[in-house]
Structure prediction request, 291 residues.
Amino acid sequence: MVKKLSQIYLDARKLLMTAEDPQTASYLARNLICHVTGKTQEQFLEDREMYASDEVCGAMDAAVGRLLAGEPLAYVLGEWEFYGLKLTVDHNVLIPRDDTCAVAALAIKQGLFLEKAPRILDLCTGSGCIGLAIASRLPDAKVTLADISKDALAIAKKNIIANHLGARVTAVQADALQPPQAFLGKFDMIVSNPPYITSEEMTQLPHSVRDYEPHLALHGGEDGLNFYRAISKHYREALKPGGFLCFEFGMGQGDAVCDILRENGYTILERSRDYNDRERACIAQLPRKED
Prediction:
């Protein structure tokens, strides 16, 4: 049966309302119809009485089925927006979340006061969202995206190219749990959103996270703090004297993360909150060399 785009949208909305409230179902259906047709929302409204091809109908059915199975919208679309940047995402990287804007904003604010052409490392980069946000706001910064996962780095490299930042952003493989390799050099600032979910919390994750997002990027050890200990200790040597270390952390982890930083010789400069008024990030500084 030949259908108009408007009918495909309404059919999708009706199906999605079996699992979502009407407003969310409308939002999801609208995103899907724009994705499968390649149209903006304005173009869809203008063309809603056009008839759809069999390919569009099939793609829409498949996309709705994936959502109803619990797969996150970002993975179905294959892209997500973060800090004004459009980023490719797949199951090899975490979906960039609004919570992470807190650590990006903290790093960018400090970055404005760094010396000319600062070197900044985004460790455990995943999609590259934090490092690319920093590069987009600090036009003279040289940013390195680092992750242990080659699959994640492949996505980060796509995002570097798509956002036209290849002249100032590179991607390399690095293990955040081990001392940094010498080739990385020294940085003015390191920023990281490392895995911080505890072993117990890993068993309680929602289906959409547990079954679709990479556990490698989620599990932070028994107490969720393994990466903070390792980075604070090992990556000191990758920071210049007076350099900055900026962390995102999970709900309720702020005091423990700051204690780890202090134990490794850092001074806490600021702790900040996300859009939901939850403490989410901190920035600390190494001492400068004595004259």
